[in-house]
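Interim report, section 4.2 (structural modelling).
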Amino acid sequence: MTASSQPAMPTLRQVLARVHMRLILCAVLMAGVTLMVTGVLVIRGYADRNLALIARTVAYTVEPALVFDDMDAARRGMAAVAASESVHRVDVRDGRGRLLVEWRRPSAGVMTVIERGIAELVAPSPARADVRRGSILVAQVRVYGGADGLGRFILSGVATALACLVLTLLATWTLARRLQRDVTEPLAHIAEVAHAVRADRQFDRRVPTSDIHEVDQLGRDFNALMDELRDWHRGVVSHNRMLERQATRDTLTGLGNRAMFEQALPATIAQADRDRTPFAVFYIDVNRFKQVNDTHGHDAGDALLIVIAARLRAVLRPDDQAFRLGGDEFALVLAPGIAPAELDAIKAQIAESMEQPIMVPSGESIDASLSIGSARYPDDSADARDLLRHADAAMYAAKAGRAAIQHR
Amino acid sequence: MLPLGPGSDSLAVGTSRMVGAILEYTRWPAPRPIVRLCVVGQARHAGRLSDIHLSNGAALQLSTLDGQQDGPPEQCDALYLGSLAVTPMQRMVAGARGQPVLTIAEDDPDCRSGAMVCLLYRPKILSFQLSIDAVSRSTVRIDPRVLRLSKGGY
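Predicted structure of the assembly:
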């Protein structure tokens, strides 16, 4: 993938993870806050009523003791009521606010102090209750605390919310991993295959199937596209190859054409130079070819050329090359490593292969003969152009010699 | 346990408070708009009983008996028993039994007379003992919370 070109761009997995994180965080916070607020309100209502009840109970219990002025009994009564509750202080004052008797819970642990502090914030104490005899206000009871449970609820609620957040993070992480496995990895695979196809022309690569409908559909379409692309590519390659053949082959005889000869000659020279081995070039001309064309027609001339090409090819060794340069002109490049003595043998073989008359479409047999001129590299010339000129001259010399013999 | 203040009549003041408090928590079968308290015999600390004010608005009517009767007269809702010879004391207590009459003994620290409430005088402190037996035989009801305040009641 080419994501590295823009480092600020997030990956699909990051986007998904972020969306999940926000969603779950939002859900947890909303649920947590709602539960917390309702819980606090409900518990606070209960705590208020509970505290008021405790205050009334204390007032009822200590009333006779106050009437009898028996503060020890009053203290015992307060302790009996308050000790089993979440009350941490009770005091009783007379009608003028003077402290008559007080009870305090023995000092508590740190957690209790924290819970009490939180509870004081949301549920203010004390609860008050009057002690009356008839219309006379004997005393007033104040009860402090009573909402420690609320503090405990808030503390545990916050702890639970934090635990939920940790779980949320884990869940998001797991979810993102699953999503990566199910969605991102197949997509990454498609991207990777596309890259391989583009960069390396690997048209045989295919995307595996996926469990997710859309991704699977994408993969299938992608694979189908790859099939079409592969077929198209094959067509282009074979067409190119055909065009190449057409550009370098002579359509009549199937031999290489002049363009190919002009490529083959420098390549052979380079090879000969590299290996320090000599090679040879033959120039060949069909004798009286124009005459055959004129008397027997162009079909006969074409047939003549085809047969001559086939016979030349039959004589050549595997690494040798034959070309038709145009008209009735042929050229041979004899592969490097050929000895001077072999040249004459090959010339003799060619002449021998031409002794048999050639049948043309009209049914007549024609005797054809060739004029051959050769040039050896690098003995005759180390320059390609000069080498050809040398071979050409040798061929004309051979033709002239043959004409002299015939005229004689 | 009622702490007693300073002063020559602190015992009488404390006694008055104690008796008033006991009357406060006493319920007669029918509500008494006037609570008639009869002081019987030689009472040493009864001098301030007239100070008593009941919070339910009932008035207190004090009367004095010499203790020679066969039992508590009809007009007594409560008896404050001072020093008496054994026989008249027993007659008084026995006569109050089963009647709507509260009996308070001033001079019976061991609470053997059969009175419902016995006052206990100790230096600086006044307390009382409640005779469950006597209370249960009477038709007056004493608030059970008072039981906790009595000697040995808790």
